[in-house]
Structures are given as C-alpha cells and as structure tokens.
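Technical annex B. To support the medicinal chemistry partners, we prepared a structural model of the target in complex with pyridoxal-5'-phosphate, based solely on the information shown next.
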Amino acid sequence: MYNETLLMMPGPVPMPESVRNSMTKQAINHRSKEFGACYADIVRILKPVFGTTNDILVLSGSGTAGQEAAIGSFAKGKKVAALVNGKFGERLGQIADIYGEAVMIESEWGHPLNLEGLKEALENGAEVVTLVHNETSAAILNPAEEVGKLARKHDALFVLDAITSIGGDVVEADKWGADIAIVGSQKCLAAPAGLAAVSVSQRAWDRLSEKRPLYLDLQKAKKSADGNPMETPTTPAVPLFLALREACKHIEAEGLENRIARHHKMSAAVRAAGSAWGLSLVPQVDALHKPSNTVTGFFYPAGVDDSQIRGACKKMGIEFAGGQDRMKGKIFRIGNMGIIDTPEILATVAAVQMSFKKAGYKLEGDGLTAAVEVLSA
Ligand SMILES: Cc1ncc(COP(=O)(O)O)c(C=O)c1O
C-alpha cells in the first residue's frame, strides 16, 4: 500500500478504491431520484446481509447513533436487560439506562454471558433485551440465536448490536428474532465511517415509544424512507451514502457466502499464528461462545509492553488495536474486517512476530508458518 498505513483495526478498515472515489463527486440534492436510488440500492443489498426482510433505515452517525436510535425509539421508560461481557455491551446498557431502566447482567469481559441472569431479568419483567453479537473489545462472538429465543419466550424486544459482524459473519436477524439489528459502515462493510444501518421488525414498530429522540427517531426515518424517492428526515451525509452503496456493490459482487468464508479463513489464520506463538486468546469460549471471526484478541505475555509490539508494527506501517479501558496494555486485537485478505494477514502476522523478536521475547513457535498453513488450505 506504499505510503499508506495498513489498518488492521476492528474498524475503520481499508476501503476499495472505487468506494473512496465515490466520495469525490459533486454534491447532489438529497431530495432527488438520484439519492433515493442510492438509498434503495443500499437497503436492497443489505437485507440478505442482515438476514432480514424487515425495514432497513440508514442513519448519518456512527454505530453508536444506531444503538441510541434503537433504544431511544423503542425502550423509552422500559426495563431493559442489558447483557454485558465487554465495552460495547456496557455502552448499550448505559444508553438503555439514559432512556429507560437498565438491568446490567454482567460477566467478566470476554467471558460467557450470564444467561441465567437474563432469564431472571425477563421473569422480573424486562421488556427489552440488548446484546452485542460480536463483542469487539474482547473479540468474542456471543450466542445471538439463544438470546433471541429467550427474549421471544418472554415476549421482550431484542436489540442486537451486529455492528462488527454484519457483512463479515453469519447474521440471521429474522431467524434469531432480532427485532432491531444494527451495523456500522466502517466495519465489515468496508465503507467510510459515519453511517449506521438499522433493521426494524413489525413487532418493534408495534411497540414504538411515544416520546423519541428528535434526530434519531426511527419512525421519522421510516416515514422518509417509505417515500418515493426514498429520503431521510434531515440532510444526510450524502457522500457517505454514495460510498456505502459502492461498498455494498462490492459485497454483492463477492457474494455473501464467499465474503463470510474469507473472514472465517483470515481469522483462523491469525488464531493459528497466536496458538503457534503460545499466546492466549482473550475470549473464554464454551459451547455457545466462540472467538470472533472478524477480530482476534490475544493477551500479552508477562513482561511484554503494548508499545513495544504495536509501536514497532506501526513503524512498519501496520496498525492494529490494543485493549480498551480495563483491557488497556493487556491485550492486542487484530481485525480482519471488510476487504482484508491473505497478503494483509501475512504481513501483519510477520510484523507481530518480528516485533516480539525485536522486543527480546522468545515466542514458542513460528506463527507465520502456522498462518501460511491455514491460508494455503
Ligand atoms: C461491537 C461494537 N458496537 C458498537 C461500536 C460503536 O460504534 P461506533 O464507534 O461506530 O459508534 C463499536 C465500535 O468499535 C463496536 O465494535
């Protein structure tokens, strides 16, 4: 990528050239057929990627705007059971507590969810359940289908943050009973940062909160999107919509199954490298909880400093993420979202291995060879 830094972050991610170029066009009227067609293309392509036939609304704002729109539009004044095993689950719970009353059902970050705690909260009248499917902060994939079943059994609305899984892993919003599912543009969709897409079921529309946020009111968004041409209630981030449409076309061209298989293979290669190095994965897995297929987290061995590893890689032009909040300095996280493929994984694994060597730490084995094995299969 010559002078460009290779971003191996769990978002934002590198974008195809045509996606970048689509943002340089002259301004267009957002109340026009041209914009409406762009919005319609995005929704058409994203529906199967979400695994939904529900409405999809695109909001100008990052993934958090999607979270806040969902909670603000459907959970005002309600008791919300918020499942937490990482930073983003915690944030969703914090939003729920601003608009309603959150019951935080917490596990250690990266550990399995407390599903018994969820059952109890539902038996005690929780009307909404929130879950982060792919908890990026701890690189763990949570069991959305099981949580959806529990929510449905107790007739609660199910809000699913699939911000970092949609477009990179299997998401079946309808099958899993996700009344609301959210994706962020700068993650597996490989579009620029700044848009969130939110799917909404009829069940959710039937339970719309009376008082909703002004800017993030999903009903207003629906009313505008239902028009011909499709519109947004206020001026949208038009260049980002154009770029997202282009990114969606790349998804369509690759094919969803192929794209998901690629994400699985890339993350498997990173996990194989870590295992050969003798590093421990951050997520504690069990029959229901798996390591993420879009970001892989490892604990640093004792005596290795985050800046030695990520700092050295950054000097080589490769940037990935450290730990957030309580995980800061303890872990590093390599993303493989969007268009990341074999060359980027090989370069990153090699750079990490070199950085440990430079730091004077002897890894157990050769991660690069292990990654090559997976990638060659
Ligand atoms: C799982 C998850 N949820 C929510 C967010 C917040 O998204 P944004 O930073 O786009 O607002 C992130 C961001 O990394 C995330 O990984």
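Notes passed to the chemistry partners:
Residues 10-11, 62-64, 88, 132, 134, 136, 161, 163-164, 184 surround pyridoxal-5'-phosphate (CB under 6 Å).
The chain has two domains: 6-11+255-376, 17-253.
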